[in-house]
Amino acid sequence: MFKRLKNDLALLSGALRTLRMMKPIMLNKSRTFPDVISELAEKYGDRPALISDKESFSYRGLDERANRYARWAMANGVGKGDVVALLMLNRAEYMAFWLGVTRAGGVVALLNTNLTGQSLGFCVDIVAPKHVVVGSELLGNFDTARSLLKTAPKIWAHGAGGSDARINEAVETFSPTALSPGEKPSITIEDRALFIYTSGTTGMPKAANINHYRLMAMTHGFCGVMNIKPDDRMYDVLPMYHSNGGVLATGAVLMGGGRTYIREKFSAREFWDDAVRVEATLVFYIGELCRYLLHAPQSPSEQKHKIRLFCGNGLRADVWPAFQARFAIPKILEWYAATEGNVAVFNWDGTPGAVGRIPSWMEKRFVVKIVRFDIEKEEPVRGPDGLVIEAEPGETGEAIGRIVADPNKPANRFEGYADKSATEKKILRDVVEKGDMWFRTGDLLRKDKDGYFYFVDRIGDTFRWKGENVSTIEVAQALTDYPGVEDAIAYGVEVPGQDGRAGMVTLVTTKEFDLKGFEEHVAQRLPDYARPVFLRQSSEIDVTGTFKQRRLELQKEGFDPAKVTDALYFRDAASGAFQSLDAGLRTRICEGQIRP
Q1: Residue-level pLDDT, tens digit, the chain, 596 residues
Q2: H/E stretch holding 209
């Protein structure tokens, strides 16, 4: 009872603090985040705001730099709603740029810095920008897509290199003073501000609409979530083309008067030394970052830091306790949300493995449901009345959030994507009543009787085998417990003549790994249907820029020795032993001579 009361108080305190920070947003719909930055510049002046290796800005300096970019945008034909795409590595200038262009009424598309060729060209074309600004270090990447573009934006380089116009030189010719009333465009929180792309782990990225309200909600809300104060220092190692690294780790900290130290790229080896050097009190994480740190060699600095809070999402239940204990982290605040959606839950009390909690007494205020889901058809299950069936406590289903077309409740809206057909696919109709609309997260979660939400898998990653649903995350967690397994990713692969998908796992192993002992571990830890049929040993697992593992490429390569140079194994169903898989064995499996 005492623990429940304590957890309820943590939830209530955090939620009220967050709502209090967000309350002013709706009082003046013409006040956007670039306006807030000007207010903060007046309040904090020369106090440090953003610090990076290439440049640093005070609050006043950031505001003035944004003014220069706003005037550059207007002088180059960027009007209200016009798009400018940005391809730049992490640095303080990154935020100054998008603040300036959005202050001018423009929309900034934040391009993934890891993309090249067709994928990069697709991301540019889908938002049809007037201009593309490319950091000099990424001109080579951009050149692989330049000839593939179907649109014709003007290309600007930031820094030396190439024959494109130099935006860093052009912007210096514009005044840093505040925009006059005559210069300022008429924009409100309803207008679009950014395009932030989905990670593209299951196909081409989608450009999510981020309007000025959502930008305000993210920055104001997370200032409350993290309880940021002027003496807080964020150490930001996440890519700034995503909301965690580019909006929350920067904008939310500025809202509280703190400062953010921006690193160009994450380094597990240098992480703790950096955190100690900058006297970081806050870190934004995604789960894979924590796992990398946990697997890194011990650092003399790893418990000398002043970090009070790790805030983020995707921290696995098997990593959480060990991570928190080894690095002496006072508090971990895990949460779950979609950048473009209306579903958000927070784990205020730090229960390991939970992504959030909505107790029964708060369900009317935060309308999030878990609905029964058919894995094979990849759609929610409906009852005889045509409405969707809600999942029972503990039952896995898709998380959805009710879409409310009420101008006074913008948090319940779904702004969608640049591609209207992609937007439509994310809307689920006739759920609780005929005609209602709900946002589909595309994620499988379960909710227990106490209101805690647990992430299970991405839809499309969970697969059916032997008539049972197999969670790739639960399989991977079971296998990473075995000595010598540094990383594991599980996925389903098609086998000719077999229903469903057979389980396959790619492992990154050390010299400590023993295949015989691993066979016993698999038999002990997993039910028969969840045990991997195929095993691939690799030196590393490729990940996206946000460290999300790329299942799609691994699934395409499957268990074909002609496509895979890594060692492959097949688990004999009778003995449970893994045997080397060559082309001949693969043929016998595919022809049905050997049943998996």
Answers
A1: 778 889 989 999 999 999 999 999 999 999 999 999 999 999 999 999 999 999 999 999 999 999 999 999 999 999 999 999 999 999 999 999 999 999 999 999 999 998 889 889 999 999 999 999 999 999 999 999 999 999 999 999 999 877 899 999 999 999 999 999 999 999 999 999 999 998 654 457 899 999 999 999 999 999 999 999 999 999 999 999 999 999 999 999 999 999 999 999 999 999 999 999 999 999 999 988 998 899 899 999 999 999 999 999 999 888 999 999 999 999 999 999 988 889 999 999 999 999 999 998 888 888 899 999 998 888 999 999 999 999 999 999 999 999 987 777 787 888 888 888 888 989 999 999 999 999 999 999 999 999 999 999 888 788 889 878 888 988 998 999 899 999 899 999 999 988 889 999 999 999 999 999 999 999 998 988 899 999 999 988 776 666 566 777 888 899 999 999 999 999 998 899 999 999 999 999 999 899 89
A2: strand 207-211
Name 148's bridge partners.
none
Separation of alpha carbons 405 and 21, rounded Å: 23
Which distant-in-sequence residues (6+ apart) come within 8 Å of 130 by Cβ? 76, 77, 78, 82, 83, 84, 153, 154
Residue listed under structure tokens 């939620």: 15
The tokens for 298 are: 């011990």
Same domain, 426 and 481: no
Residues in the chain: 596
Q: How many CB atoms lie within 10 A of CB 353?
A: 17
Cα(51)–Cα(260) distance, integer angstroms:
6
Burial class (CB in 10 A: 0-12, 13-18, 19+), 441: buried
Q: Can you tell me the distance from the alpha carbon of 53 to that of 262, in angstroms, rounded to the nearest whole number?
A: 8
* Total of domains in the chain: 3
Give every CB contact of residue 185 below 8 A, 6+ residues apart in sequence: 79, 80, 104, 105
Indicate if 241 and 167 belong to the same structural domain.
Answer: yes
Q: Which residue has the tokens 């989905």?
A: 198
Domain of residue 371, CATH code: 2.30.38.10
For residue 194, the cross-strand partners are: 108, 210
Burial (0-12, 13-18, 19+ Cβ within 10 Å), 31: middle
The token duo for 218 is: 């993210």
Strand-pairing partners, residue 110, are 86, 196
Interatomic CA distance for residues 294 and 268, integer angstroms: 9
* Structural domain contains residue 347: no
Spatial separation of the C-alpha atoms in residues 103 and 66, rounded to whole Å: 8
Question: Residue 118: which domain range?
Answer: 2-265
Tell me the pairing of strands 437-447 and 427-429.
Answer: antiparallel
Q: Hunting for tokens 């830890």 — which residue is that?
A: 525
Task: Kindly state the tokens that stand for 352.
Answer: 């390991």
In this structure, the dihedral spanned by the alpha carbons of residues 462, 466, 467 and 472, taken in order and rounded to 10 degrees, is -10
**Sequence-ordered alpha helix ranges (H) in 137-194:** 139-146, 167-170
Residue 496 sits in the same domain as residue 572: yes
